[in-house]
Amino acid sequence: MADTNLSKLNQKTLRVPRDHTYTYYTNSASRGKPTLILFHGWPDTAKLWANVINNYLLPSGYGIIAVDGLGFGDTSEPTDAVAILDAEQIPTVISVGHDWGSGIAQRLYNCYPTRVSGLGMLNFAAALDALRKVFGYGTIEYWKFFVAEDAPWILSENIKSIYAAAHGSPESWLETYCAPDGMRNWVSSGKTQQPLQPYAGGSHEADFLVLQENVVVKVPTLFWGGTRDMVCRPEMLQRSMEAGLLPKLTLKLVDEGHWALLAKPERFSEDLIQ
Question: Tag placement on the chain: N or C end, fewer CB within 10 Å?
């Protein structure tokens, strides 16, 4: 049975400026050791990390911030990680996520690269699902383009097209995000001309373009996953590798499925600490 006991850590709550309340579990690092911020995926809480924390990270002296995110555990809304780091007075962390938590871990680096000294991703990839029967159109048709082999190159060359597609009228999404090949056709053509929302442009667009400068992860990065994960296939990382987005990547695979972290916590902990 998986360990779910986080009683060795200090449980804290924090209300951030956006008026959301977050719960997280923390322990200070020993001298010379970094702090890891741990993001769980779906459907989990911070307790996902209990075995790794209790048996490997704590005994080795690593600092820990394990977050209840995305409405799980005792947290009310998605995690505002930087507010937690500020409250704990921790300047930099190693950002680690499992499943959809990997997305949060990556975004923490994308948005605040100076606050992240390393990145870890476990069993994470995009899943494709058509919802035409429910809504009459595919709400995530654009995913098919985003996970295509040539997507990294097309997207990186047409950043302004992505912004224009994202911030046009809500109805325009039916022709881009929600239409088969809609996003591919829009971005590949380099389109930027359509009426934007009143808030769009100016500093908002400038912030978006600056964010793209941090797409290449320049800190040491660990991808750790299971070869028998039938949804979050580790092969899907290949496109990012070929696009040069992960120049300091270490790839570790084990003979397990999506919950490899629970099946082989010792192996994961050893690879993470290394």
Answer: N
pLDDT digits (tens, 9 = 90+) for 83-134: 889 999 999 998 988 877 887 888 888 788 899 999 888 876 433 343 566 6
Q: Which residue has the tokens 């088969």?
A: 180
Among all chains, which residue has been given the structure tokens 């959809």?
100
Give the CA count within 13 Å in the CB-facing half-sphere of 179: 13
Instruction: Give start and end residues of each alpha helix (H) in 172-259.
Output: 182-188, 202-212, 238-242
Spatial CA neighbour of 18 closest among 66, 65, 75: 75
Beta strand 93-98 pairing with 116-122: parallel
Question: Is the whole-model pTM more than 0.70?
Answer: no
Residue-wise pLDDT tens digits, 155-178: 878 888 988 888 888 889 899 988
Q: How far apart are CA 221 and CA 63, in angstroms?
A: 18
Measured CA to CA, the distance from residue 80 to residue 91 in angstroms comes to: 15
Tokens at residue 248, please?
């300091």
Q: Which residues of 27-52 are buried (b: 16+ CB within 10 A; e: fewer)?
A: bebeeeeebbbbbbbeebbbbbbbbb
